[in-house]
Amino acid sequence: MPTSSSALAAALLPLVGGPANVLSTAHCMTRLRLGLADRSLVDEAGLRAVPGVLGVVVDDDTYQIVLGPGVVTRVTARFDALLGSSSPLAARGVQLKEEQRQRNATPLKLALRRVANVFVPLIPALVGCGVLAGLNGLLVNLGWLPSLTPALAAVASAFMALIAVFVGHNTAKEFGGTPVLGGAVAAVVVYPGVAKVTAFGVTLAPGQGGVLGALAAAVLGTYVEKWCRTWVPATLDVLLTPTLTVLVSGLATLYGLMYAAGEISSAIGTAANWLLTTTGAAAGLVLGGLFLPLVMLGLHQALIPIHTTLVEQQGYTVLLPLLAMAGAGQVGAAAAVYVRLRHDTSLRTTIRSALPAGLLGVGEPLIYGVSLPLGRPFLTACAGGSAGGAFVGFFAMLGDRVGATAIGPSGWALFPLLAGNRALPVTAAIYGGGLVTAYVVGFLATYAFGLTGVASPESRTDANQPC
């Protein structure tokens, strides 16, 4: 039985076909993502039986093993160390992975994954700076430590002030360009000197267009760089290619992309506010109910640019607290399964191990380990999320906006990041009320309807096991 990250990694490697079958490794907040040469070599039943494995997800281009937050980072490092030089991670492996992805991925899913790959690496900094911003706001409101709060504000805000550069760097890396050139082009968006530039009869403002402008600028820069390399002589490449890339892309950013991205960013903020103030309860009902399927498909990461844009504009994103209700509905559903299937010791063990992560807003372990395999509990969990979203959305219609200063955490972990247009206790009470609503509805819906068709404890094969 694996008792450490090293032991768990060692247990996983032979079950996925050994080092020669692994083409690539990566991880997100909860999943070890593997590119495999031959999926038929995977012992999926063996993987699911390994203590510490909370679920398995088969995606178009990766084989994903759900391990949970924190654990996945350590296991991935150990897994990479075990692979060493025995895995064909380079030429042939990358080629096979790309061929497989091109066969299976639709253009839309590929585009969404690329956008997600740009922003997911930024989440740790967004979380850390968001928590510090919330702490600083609390200290300012209480009048405590006035000599420290300016320094804390600087530490918390510096990353957001330069986030465009990091977005540009990651975008160029994802789209096959030189990362530092992507960062250089995107830096134009936040450079204070753009205030002296006029485009479309309007003087530009530093930061106009935000992360969307940085994303567009870096994508353009990547294509300009690739175009330059097709005709620039090798002897002049080191001089001309970066110069032309920055020049052409930089001017296009100043005289087109910043203005256009600024208009789009403003429209996103306006649309989000209108959605909640006019149709808050209905919007919350839909968003809270649909978020779990997005998480299941891995497409929820594509919402990060929208959240980031709202944080840049308003200081918080009003969408994240609504979406966080989906995880609360999942917790309520899992609790009902735990109560109803009291003789299923294996399932109850999975729930006990995954529930703490679920309370902190990490829903994948409960999705893939509990509700999705059972079927109906997944739908009743969505119903709980809808109820919680409607609760928070209803208060938005009354003028009480609940937002988050950063993205990433949800559940109880979101409390330190809460912000809004009311006092913090009011904002926290509304969010907490939404969580409780989602818990209760998810539990009751699952208890009453979610386990219909599931064998009763007395007729299950493990019914003779002790409670």
From TrEMBL:
It holds the Pfam family PTS_EIIB. Residues 113-461 form the PTS EIIC type-1 domain. The active site is at C28. It is found in: Cell membrane. InterPro entries: Glu_permease_IIB, PTrfase_EIIB_Cys, PTS_EIIC, PTS_EIIC_1, PTS_IIB_1, PTS_Sugar-Specific_Components. GO terms for molecular function: kinase activity; protein-N(PI)-phosphohistidine-sugar phosphotransferase activity; protein-phosphocysteine-N-acetylmuramate phosphotransferase system transporter activity. It is a multi-pass membrane protein. One of its GO terms (cellular component) is plasma membrane. Its main location: membrane. GO terms for biological process: phosphoenolpyruvate-dependent sugar phosphotransferase system. Keywords: Cell membrane, Kinase, Membrane, Phosphotransferase system, Sugar transport, Transferase, Transmembrane, Transmembrane helix, Transport. Residues 6-89 form the PTS EIIB type-1 domain. The chain crosses the membrane at residues 118-139, 151-169, 175-194, 201-224, 244-262, 274-299, 319-341, 353-372, 378-399, 430-450. Coiled coil: none annotated. This is PTS sugar transporter subunit IIC. It comes from Streptomyces resistomycificus. The lineage of its organism: Bacteria, Bacillati, Actinomycetota, Actinomycetes, Kitasatosporales.
